[in-house]
Design goal:
- By secondary structure, the protein is of the alpha/beta class.
- The protein has helices at residues 36-42, 65-79, 91-102, 133-141, 152-162, 165-180, 207-216, 232-235, 237-251, and strands spanning 6-8, 11-16, 21-25, 47-51, 84-89, 107-113, 194-199, 220-225.
- It has an eight-stranded mixed beta sheet, with helices on both faces.
- The relative contact order is 0.16.
């Protein structure tokens, strides 16, 4: 299923369906394909919004978690979204966390899956390694429990990025920014209901990271999915959608108060 990429000023995004906004923030090597099952499932109950984060388009000074958060905030203001269910995977989760701490007023709930912000294993000290496609394939496969999820299409996308010197510099800048921007005790200030969905076999943000998020975020619930790595919404979409659907259903306003 392909969706129309819309444009509003300098912002590019997907918007499908009606209802309370479910905004999806992708990670460092994320793409719209990461969310295809989510979009298809939740566009029947929510307005599913996926901003195309300018990970590699910002100037180097603003290529950071903070720079991306400011971009997301400007996007929300431009589109006048409210009562947002904000979901982020990996670096996208980190951006979502920084946003909710700075601008909680328009966020109804938070959903994190494999989020950075406390701890993450990077792609390794030698990453990104240019020109070695097999190396990129092996590193991409580490994202998943099932290495077959690292399709040729996905590997080619990552390979193309890592063969561009300026893109590599920006990837490193974002990765370093994520490590520096460790949120820790700040997370206790999050008041919104929070759903944590974690792969039991995530090697990038291992299960103990999900447990630490649950410990720090007051109104949070944690769900683990077996045989699943760093991107549950891609690897086990049915189970992911079931958990997220249940969480969102609990937050629906009673008909009498709508």
């Amino acid at each position: 299923m392909t969706y129309e990429i819309k444009q509003d000023g300098k912002f590019k995004y997907i918007e499908e369906g009606q209802g309370e906004p479910l905004m999806l923030l992708h990670g460092l090597f994320g793409a719209l394909s990461n969310f295809q099952y989510l979009i298809e499932h939740f566009r029947h109950t929510n307005k599913v919004v996926v901003p195309l984060l300018p990970l590699l388009e910002l100037d180097l000074l603003h290529t950071s978690v903070g720079g991306l958060q400011k971009y997301v905030n400007r996007f929300i203001e431009q589109r006048k979204y409210d009562r947002i269910h904000l979901m982020g995977n990996s670096l996208g989760g980190h951006v979502g966390l920084v946003h909710i701490l700075k601008h909680p007023e328009k966020i109804k709930s938070l959903i994190l899956t494999g989020s950075s912000g406390l701890f993450e294993n990077g792609m390794g000290d030698t990453y990104p390694k240019r020109g070695d496609k097999e190396y990129i394939r092996n590193k991409t496969a580490l994202t998943f429990y099932d290495p077959a999820m690292a399709t040729d299409e996905l590997v080619n996308e990552v390979f193309e990025i890592t063969n561009n010197r300026m893109k590599v510099i920006k990837i490193i800048a974002l990765a370093k920014s994520a490590i520096r921007n460790n949120l820790g005790e700040e997370l206790t200030n999050i008041k919104q209901p929070t759903c944590l969905i974690w792969g039991n076999n995530d090697t990038i943000t291992p299960p103990f990271v999900g447990k630490e998020f649950q410990k720090l975020i007051p109104n949070s619930e944690l769900h683990f999915i077996d045989k699943c790595g760093h991107a549950p919404m891609m690897e086990v979409p049915e189970e992911f959608n079931r958990i997220l659907g249940g969480f969102l259903a609990k937050l629906k306003s009673p008909a009498a108060t709508v």
